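Continuing the batch. This is chain 6 of the set; chains 1 through 5 are on the previous pages. Same settings as before, nothing changed between runs. Recording input and output for traceability.
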Amino acid sequence: MKKLFIILVAAMATLFVSCEKDKTAEPQLNNLTGKLHGVFSVSNTDKVQFSQGNLQYDTYAKKWQFASQQYEVQGANNVTENGVQDLFTWTTDGWKTDDTWRVLSSQEWNYLINERTNHQNLVKTARIDGTMGLVLLPDNWSLNPLTSTYTLAQWQTLEEAGAVFLPLAGLQLADADAISAIGTIGAYWSSTSRDQTLAWHIYVIGVTNTTQLASSAKQSLLSIRLVTDVE
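Output for chain 6:
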């Protein structure tokens, strides 16, 4: 895994809370359930567990939920025929939701990917049944090393052992008209604001197995993966 490096994704935006670019809404996530059992160090002292899938919003039922599978993405329109959205803007509190769920800070993303013990063997882009994403292995991993391709059956074995998969769901920058790079690039918000208009996130390039720390306009639509702290 290459060293994290900082890039600036250019875009200006006004700061507001939104689950759509023209709609404001505070996320109501207190009742969400479904965490994976793998434990991941995000600092010298703190550990987390990940939610079972990326954050979604059902626009018909008007409720927040987790994807039923870790490799699930909604596609180019973001809101599909079933009305489910899975790319969101940054919020004023950086998606710190309550005492249960939150988003990693930029420093925690950096530690997870590039600083924890044996990190070089615990992070890799790979395809799960054709879906490209970033595989994160828990601290105590003892099974086979990572490869580049997995069948669903092979992935189930990894998932049962605590592995996390962040699908490359693409992104829509604040000044863009459509979602792009689905299956080739993934961008996941952190809780860390860079300034009034920009916030930090990880930026994953599948084909080069590269994960970067980047900043984009807070109005951009990116993926959200929540974590819960291990006491």
